[in-house]
Design a protein that fits this description.
This protein is about 40% helix and about 20% strand. It has about 325 residues and is α+β, with helices and mostly antiparallel strands. It has a 5-stranded antiparallel beta sheet, with helices on both faces. A 4-stranded antiparallel beta sheet has the order 9-10-8-11. It has a two-stranded antiparallel ribbon with strand order 1-2. Helix 2 packs across helix 3.
Length: about 325
């Protein structure tokens, strides 16, 4: 652990205690007595009001047990924060307005030399979704659907929700248990369990018009919901083996509901088992496009005829 990181952790450790000793610091952080003493002195020099107690059992306590010095960032920590901001721009993430103010505060905390470094990084680094003609640090565009933040606020209170969904010209109202909230193909989606029809649904956040907590006393527990979901899973009808190149492609992108199991300890071969609804033309088309994306480092063990026909029609041979 680097010195700066260790000192930050020690500060938080001692700030949450009414009293501590050098021996406790030594044991907790596995450091020598001399290192512990040097760290404590450096923390005092940074402004933390430590009071020493003399005597055989003497130690230290923090005056008022509430004061922490100003947070200090190393050069690398500042670059890490900045790169995280850059890499997630234009991704329709929630709380983008808060990120805007965070970026402004970050700039206000750092020196001119550090600001110059960030300007240079901003000029030479481009990430997916970045507009090269306007790669401004604070250009946080592409705001998500306004319902996304409201949805997250409700999820933090309760996963049992009453939602209103716009389907064509019709509004539908029903209760769900939210299992996952995820982003796929530039869209935010809800994987929810319909509590009345007792089935899993994928709902685009864009189609939500309202969301509220679902205040009902007698409701299914999460354990029972997951058990019902497991029993409803379709039989596997697509089985393929992936080589290292296909695994690399899989890691770049894969549908949320698809997973692989590695078949050797080196993770250079894997097997994929999933279900494709052959009655759904859109699902077939998406699966075929994704199989083509995986490339030719694939061995088919089982595949629905409808999917096989489409991949062969597009020139894929296994």
């Amino acid at each position: 652990m680097k010195k700066v990181e260790r000192i930050n952790i020690i500060m938080r450790y001692i700030n949450n205690r009414s009293r501590f000793t050098i021996s406790e610091i030594m044991r907790e952080f596995n450091i020598s007595r001399s290192t512990a003493i040097r760290d404590i002195r450096e923390i005092e020099a940074m402004g933390m009001p430590l009071v020493a107690e003399v005597g055989r059992d003497g130690g230290y306590f923090v005056m008022n047990n509430s004061v922490l010095p100003t947070v200090r960032f190393t050069d690398n920590e500042i670059k890490a924060l900045f790169l995280a901001f850059m890499a997630t721009r234009n991704q329709q993430l929630p709380y983008l307005k808060s990120r805007h103010s965070l970026a402004e505060k970050l700039l206000g905390l750092i020196s001119e030399n550090q600001q110059d470094d960030l300007v240079l990084l901003n000029q030479i680094l481009l990430f997916e979704g970045t507009n090269p003609n306007n790669p401004d640090l604070l250009d946080l565009s592409d705001l998500p659907h306004p319902m996304l933040e409201q949805l997250i606020q409700n999820i933090l209170l309760d996963s049992y929700l009453w939602i209103t969904v716009q389907e064509g010209k019709e509004l539908k109202f029903y209760p769900i248990y939210l299992l996952h909230l995820y982003r796929e193909k530039s869209r935010w989606l809800i994987e929810g369990f319909h509590l009345k029809e007792e089935k899993t649904q994928i709902i685009p956040v864009d189609s939500l018009t309202d969301v509220e907590p679902y205040p009902v006393k007698n409701r299914l527990s999460r354990k029972k919901i997951l058990e019902k979901q497991r029993l409803q899973k379709k039989d596997v009808n697509l089985v393929i083996d992936l080589g290292p190149n296909a695994i690399a492609q899989f890691k770049k992108y894969h549908p949320l509901t698809v997973s692989i199991s590695y078949t050797n300890p080196y993770q250079t071969s894997a097997r994929l088992n999933t279900f494709v609804d052959v009655r759904n033309e859109e699902e077939i088309s998406e699966m075929v496009s994704w199989l083509l994306f995986l490339g030719e480092d694939v061995v088919v063990r089982e595949m629905p005829g409808e999917v096989l026909y489409e991949v062969n029609k597009r020139g894929w041979r296994y």
